């Protein structure tokens, strides 16, 4: 279960605090996105320079300013260490407006259920605050861990929506698709 502080863009779970990114998170954005393991299935997301992380932060911040939501920084309660990022962004899939669920975590946070907990919280938030848009997750067929996160967040396979993305075939997981 989660709750939103609209003024601060914060979500809470039993173990995690999710907050809107700030410029102070650029180093963590860089560290997580330059790790070859975190971008193994999405190599086009890999960063090689700190200024790229700054640009990524600015895109995330611009979306927050336009939409009032975006990607959150995920931390354990009481810790300043960024475990990763989880959130939503509007996009189009086969001509349909959707929200894309994103999650990427430092390898040190893998296997502890943090991504699933954060993704489920963001999914719940999106269903309450942006209910008119279907929610999707684009997952590589070989990325079993990401498939599990999408399923634990309440999304189901929607094979009819699969498409080729930047890094190969995207399997689509979805919730709240129109009939």
UniProtKB/TrEMBL annotation:
<protein>
    <submittedName>
        <fullName>GNAT family N-acetyltransferase</fullName>
    </submittedName>
</protein>
<feature type="domain" description="N-acetyltransferase">
    <location>
        <begin position="16"/>
        <end position="178"/>
    </location>
</feature>
<dbReference type="Pfam" id="PF13302">
    <property type="entry name" value="Acetyltransf_3"/>
</dbReference>
<dbReference type="InterPro" id="IPR051531">
    <property type="entry name" value="N-acetyltransferase"/>
</dbReference>
<dbReference type="InterPro" id="IPR016181">
    <property type="entry name" value="Acyl_CoA_acyltransferase"/>
</dbReference>
<dbReference type="GO" id="GO:0016747">
    <property type="term" value="F:acyltransferase activity, transferring groups other than amino-acyl groups"/>
</dbReference>
<dbReference type="InterPro" id="IPR000182">
    <property type="entry name" value="GNAT_dom"/>
</dbReference>
């Amino acid at each position: 279960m989660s709750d939103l502080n609209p003024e601060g863009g914060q979500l809470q779970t039993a173990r995690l605090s999710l907050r809107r990114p700030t410029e102070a998170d650029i180093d963590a954005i860089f560290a997580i996105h330059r790790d070859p393991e975190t971008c193994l299935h999405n190599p086009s997301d890999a960063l090689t320079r700190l200024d790229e992380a700054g640009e990524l932060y600015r895109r995330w911040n611009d979306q927050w300013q336009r939409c009032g939501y975006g990607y959150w920084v995920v931390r354990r309660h009481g810790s300043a260490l960024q475990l990763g990022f989880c959130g939503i962004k509007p996009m189009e899939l086969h001509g349909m407006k959707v929200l894309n669920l994103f999650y990427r975590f430092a390898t040190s946070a893998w296997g502890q259920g943090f991504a699933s907990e954060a993704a489920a919280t963001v999914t719940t938030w999106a269903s309450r605050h942006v209910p008119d848009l279907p929610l999707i997750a684009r997952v590589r067929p070989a990325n079993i861990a990401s498939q599990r996160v999408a399923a634990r967040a309440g999304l189901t396979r929607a094979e009819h929506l699969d498409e080729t993305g930047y890094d190969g075939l995207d399997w689509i997981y979805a919730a709240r698709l129109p009939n």
